[in-house]
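lol forgot to send this yesterday, sorry. struct tokens for the thing we talked abt
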């Protein structure tokens, strides 16, 4: 498939990389941009050769927000009919892990896009924020909900109500970011992390991702039951037999995803 707004790369290590590539608009998340992002990620999710994915921008900007020109004169009905925010929701249905590699600005929809990924690796120049209040609106693609579950109510309120922005180091300290690296190496470090995950048992990875995400949406008792069922389910897989046999034989496991 030919893309106009993104660049797609594949690694021999089982990693797929999607790069936002509209630097003149600071990678504004227009409808066409989001459609291409989701098409590429969903294709990778269905590709058996890909086991982990990385979503990134440029060194200067991950994504500075949604495309304001698209929305400035829109009515509620138009926003609903365009299913604009539904594009972010599609990220929740990806089976394989998705790592955001963030450098520069990740603001508004860009911050929401990064938070919708499973992990975030940031460069030292990364800045996270939800500045929608400056436009007379509010976060609409998960900003209020995912922030509070990560950074807590007080900081989430300040970020959404008063355009408080977090540096990469601050974001790491409050748990929004996994790791921070120099601008020169953050993307490669994200790919290295993805490659390490891609080398592990695929079915277990999928069920771990599902189960961890379920913890955000269910009471503890229901989450524990879901975890237990998935744990037992993995004992029906060849990967479980191979993994435990490899451990006992003191050798590396040969994962098949079966």
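and heres what i got for the seq, position by position
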């Amino acid at each position: 498939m030919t893309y106009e707004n993104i660049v797609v790369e594949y690694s021999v290590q089982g990693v797929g990389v999607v790069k936002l590539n509209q630097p003149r608009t600071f990678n504004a998340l227009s409808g066409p941009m989001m459609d291409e992002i989701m098409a590429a990620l969903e294709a990778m999710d269905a590709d058996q050769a890909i086991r982990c994915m990385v979503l990134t921008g440029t060194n200067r900007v991950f994504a500075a927000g949604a495309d304001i020109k698209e929305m400035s004169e829109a009515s509620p009905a138009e926003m609903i009919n365009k299913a604009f925010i539904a594009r972010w929701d599609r990220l929740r249905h990806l089976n394989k892990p998705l790592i955001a590699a963030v450098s520069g600005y990740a603001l508004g929809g860009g911050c929401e896009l990064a938070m919708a990924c499973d992990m975030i690796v940031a460069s030292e120049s990364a800045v996270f924020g939800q500045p929608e209040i400056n436009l007379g609106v509010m976060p609409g693609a998960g900003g209020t909900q995912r922030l509070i579950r990560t950074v807590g109510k007080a900081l989430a309120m300040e970020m959404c109500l008063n355009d408080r922005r977090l540096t990469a180091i601050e974001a790491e300290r409050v748990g929004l970011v996994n790791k921070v690296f120099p601008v020169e190496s953050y993307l490669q470090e994200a790919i290295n992390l993805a490659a390490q995950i891609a080398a592990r048992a695929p079915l277990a990875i999928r069920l771990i991702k599902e189960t961890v995400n379920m913890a955000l949406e269910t009471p503890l008792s229901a989450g524990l039951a879901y975890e237990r069922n998935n744990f037992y389910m993995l004992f029906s897989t060849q990967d479980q037999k191979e993994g435990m046999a490899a451990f006992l034989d003191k050798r590396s496991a040969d994962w098949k995803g079966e």
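The first strand starts at residue 6 and ends at 10. anyway ping me if u want another try
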